[in-house]
Design brief:
Layout: H1 3-28, H2 37-70, H3 82-93, H4 99-138, E1 143-147, E2 153-156, H5 158-164, H6 168-172, H7 185-193, E3 199-208, E4 214-226, E5 229-238, H8 240-261, E6 266-271, E7 274-278, H9 280-285, H10 290-295, H11 308-320, E8 325-333, E9 339-351, E10 354-363, H12 365-387, E11 391-396, E12 399-403, H13 405-411, H14 415-419, H15 433-444, E13 450-458, E14 464-476, E15 479-488, H16 490-553, H17 559-590, E16 596-599, H18 600-614, E17 620-624, E18 628-632, H19 634-651, E19 658-667, E20 670-677, H20 709-719, E21 724-728, E22 734-738, E23 744-745
Parallel strand pairs: 17-19
Antiparallel strand pairs: 1-2, 1-5, 3-4, 4-5, 6-7, 6-10, 8-9, 9-10, 11-12, 11-15, 13-14, 14-15, 16-18, 18-23, 19-20, 20-22, 21-22
Helix pairs in contact: 1-2, 2-3, 3-4, 16-17, 17-20, 18-19, 19-20
Length: 760
């Protein structure tokens, strides 16, 4: 190949490249080329003309490859991209003798094409930014951009300002945590720290407005770079109304479910002859669990065979639309085989797109039993009333609405006569009618519920009788009425009159006998006093002369004579003591009483001190319960306590360490005082002799005394309206109990360890 041929070989690709540059220039002016392949064909033809077949073939090959890599689809704008130039340079470098020229052209073309690409990209970026700015600012949904690291707002749109109440300046000074309720912030921070995709729908969150309202929003976020920093674009859609509606619906569903599930009324849904829903109450009526009830192949298994036709017919009416609802009663069979009475109310419904029956069940077994029991009771009551010997009546609107046979018999009428318009006025004595009328009015108007009184009635034959009524207010057929019983007390009234006359006569006799007895008692007391007074002087003389004989003539008498005189003296002294005790007993019986509050504890302590002085050589422990008081005559009570304590002192003499106690115990009849000792005691078989005058359970040689002391105690206690009794055992001590009016302890009463019991 000559020089001309080599030049042509190089000129072909150069011409093709020049043509491509021309097209690029045209593209800058946005000239549309319908068929970019024309440029390639022209360049290939021209190279063939200049260099011959081989040069034309090489140029055509370069042009075709260039076109394949750089040209757009037919009809598109020709685009000369920088990478196209690079590819072309690679191809041209493989062509002999053109490497240097192609390298120079490549550098220039690369710079020009890079600049063109940058200008084009900048133009597109500005266009996109302007479009995004318009879309961001005018979007109807609240939008903002926040910094990923600081969480500060970087931009907000108009909708966010309007929706949340903050100005744009306020927003840009805030962090996104400040529009969240405090309790939601930890969850937000945790969500931000997690790895996030480029685009994320975060679900429903709670936001807080400037005025404190809480909004429910659906949040969508997109990661981006804003002002050179990593940021997130957020779009918030207010779904508060939807959330509230959903919550209300959920609450309503929960309330309905709880209402149905926990209702005491059984609820069921039947479809195709079996239960597709039952609540716990419905299942429990038949002794099933919910699962057991739903597992039944047919509800017929829980229906009494005799009642199944009724159940099937009524349910069929509802399903067929023949009745809007049905109500019926039936007998069911529980799981254990027992029978249950139920009331069923059902309506037609749709369950899973198919007809069904929605209904309620009520267990009325107890009510049925109660009704049967009431019916039996009414029958018994009616039988009892009809056969009663006491008259029974029901009065309403001033006439008898019901009378039993006994009431008709009392007034001498037939039941039919009394119930044909007669009333209480027709059988009441005219003088007693105002009383009967007033009592009827008070009960009918509700002033009193019940009354009991007597009045005179008039029989059909005109005879006046005495009756007694017990009546109370009631309701009959929805209106007030009076129901009661009536008893003929004519014979009782007559007997009462006779008894009253007899009582009057007896009272007159008692008064007469009492006067006679009082006169006799006065005479007896005067006689006793006189006898006792007249006996005291001779006894003193006997005792005095006996003592003088012993002193003056005792040496002249032998031992027997002196013993006789000593016995005379002892007998006269004992007689004197008896007379003194009789006088004291007489004074106890006839002295007037002056009741007042008496401190028994202090009185016992004083008497015990006197007894301790008399028996100075004895070791006696006296225990006195404090705070014992009673309403009594202090002088008489002192006499009684002196006798009781003196006996305790006397009968504990054989004990080396005597113990005497005074206190109060709680008995079956109330509080009682006691005096207890650890002395010789006595045999309870002879306890009936204790309180009789001159009765003794021990020999005088063992324990001195006249037998008047306990009789005096009994007389004092009796005059106060109390009782006295004793408990003892031989050689085991004795306890004497007595009651007094107004007895109390300013403190706690003891429990008697000896078991004082009650007086016989």
């Amino acid at each position: 190949m000559g020089e001309r041929g080599r030049n042509v070989w190089a000129a072909g690709p150069l011409l093709t490249l020049a043509a491509a540059g021309a097209v690029e220039l045209v593209d800058r002016f946005l000239v549309h080329i319908p068929t970019p392949g024309v440029v390639v064909l022209l360049a290939a033809a021209y190279a063939a003309y200049l260099g011959g077949f081989r040069a034309g073939l090489a140029s055509s090959l370069v042009a075709v490859l260039y076109s394949a890599w750089t040209l757009s689809e037919p009809g598109a704008v020709f685009h000369y991209a920088p990478e196209s130039a690079v590819r072309l340079a690679v191809l041209l470098a493989a062509t002999p003798g053109t490497a240097l020229l192609v390298g120079v052209l490549r550098d220039r073309l690369v710079r020009e094409t890079l600049r063109a690409a940058e200008l084009h990209a900048e133009h597109r970026r500005r266009s996109l930014e302007e479009a995004f700015g318009v879309l961001f600012r005018h979007n109807p949904l609240p939008m903002w951009v926040y910094d990923v690291e600081t969480l500060h707002f970087l931009a907000v749109n108009r909708a966010a300002v309007a929706h949340y109440g903050y100005s744009e300046e306020e927003f840009l000074r805030m962090r996104i945590t400040e529009i969240r309720p405090e309790e939601d912030v930890p969850r937000l921070l945790e969500d931000i720290r997690r790895p996030r995709p480029e685009f994320q729908q975060s679900g429903v969150w709670r936001h807080r407005t400037k005025d404190g309202r809480v909004l429910h929003v659906e949040v969508s976020s997109h990661r981006l770079e804003f002002a050179g920093r990593p940021a997130v674009l957020v779009v918030a859609q207010d779904v508060t109304d939807r959330v509230r509606t959903e919550q209300a619906l959920q609450e309503s569903e929960e309330m309905f479910r709880n209402l149905v599930e926990h209702s005491p009324l059984g609820v069921f849904v039947l479809q195709d002859g079996r239960a597709v829903y039952v609540n716990q109450a419905a299942a429990a009526i038949f002794g099933d669990t919910v699962d057991q009830a739903l597992a039944l192949p047919a509800v017929r298994e829980r229906v009494h065979p005799d009642d199944w036709p009724t159940v099937e017919r009524e349910l069929g009416r509802v399903l067929a639309g023949d009745a809007p609802h049905v109500s019926f009663a039936a007998r069911g069979l529980r799981r254990d085989g027992t029978m249950v009475h139920v009331e069923v109310h059902g309506v037609r419904t749709t369950f899973r797109g198919r007809p069904a029956v929605l209904g309620t069940l009520t267990d009325v077994t107890a009510r049925r039993r109660a009704e049967e029991a009431l019916r039996e009771s009414e029958e018994k009551f009616r039988s009892l009333v009809e056969q009663s010997l006491v008259g029974v009546y029901l009065i309403q609107d001033g006439v008898f609405r019901y009378v039993n046979p006994a009431l008709a018999t009392i007034f001498g009428y037939t039941r039919q006569e009394l119930l044909e318009g007669m009333g209480p006025r027709d059988v009441t004595h005219p003088e007693d009618w105002p009383l009967v009328q007033e009592n009827l009015r008070r009960r009918l108007e509700g002033e009193v519920e019940a009354v009991q009184y007597g009045f005179r009635g008039v029989r059909k034959d005109g005879r006046v009788i005495h009756v007694e009524v017990h009546g109370r207010r009631t309701v009959y057929e929805g209106r007030p009425a009076v129901i009661g019983t009536l008893v003929d007390v004519t014979e009782r009234k007559q007997a009462e009159e006779a008894l009253r006359a007899l009582t009057q006569e007896l009272e007159e006799r008692v008064q007469e006998r009492t006067a006679q007895l009082e006169a006799a008692n006065r005479e007896l007391e005067a006689f006793s006093y006189s006898v006792a007074h007249d006996l005291r002087a001779p006894l003193r003389s006997i005792d005095g002369f006996s003592q003088a004989l012993l002193e003056d003539y005792g040496e002249q008498l032998d031992e027997t004579g002196q013993d006789y005189l000593r016995r005379v003296r002892a007998a006269s002294q004992r007689m004197g003591e008896l007379i003194d005790d009789l006088l004291r007993l007489s004074r106890v019986a006839r002295s007037p009483m002056q009741l007042q509050e008496v401190d028994l504890s202090a009185l016992v302590a004083r008497i015990g001190a006197e007894l301790r002085q008399r028996a100075a050589g004895r070791a006696v422990e006296l225990r006195v319960q404090a705070g014992v008081v009673a309403r009594a005559d202090p002088k008489l009570l002192a006499v009684a306590l002196e006798n009781l304590l003196d006996n305790a002192w006397k009968f504990t003499a054989p004990r080396p360490q005597a113990l005497v106690e005074f206190g109060v115990v709680q008995t079956e009849g109330g509080l009682a005082c006691f005096v207890r000792d650890n002395g010789v005691g006595f045999d309870l078989r002879y306890a009936d002799k204790l309180f009789a005058p001159f009765q003794r359970l021990h020999k005088p040689s063992e324990f001195p005394g006249t037998g008047i002391g306990l009789a005096t105690v009994q007389r004092v206690v009796a005059r106060h309206g109390g009782k006295v009794w004793a408990q003892a055992q031989v050689d085991g001590g004795a306890t004497f109990y007595f009651t007094l009016p107004g007895l109390e302890v300013r403190g706690a009463a003891e429990t008697d360890p000896a078991g004082g019991g009650q007086p016989g």
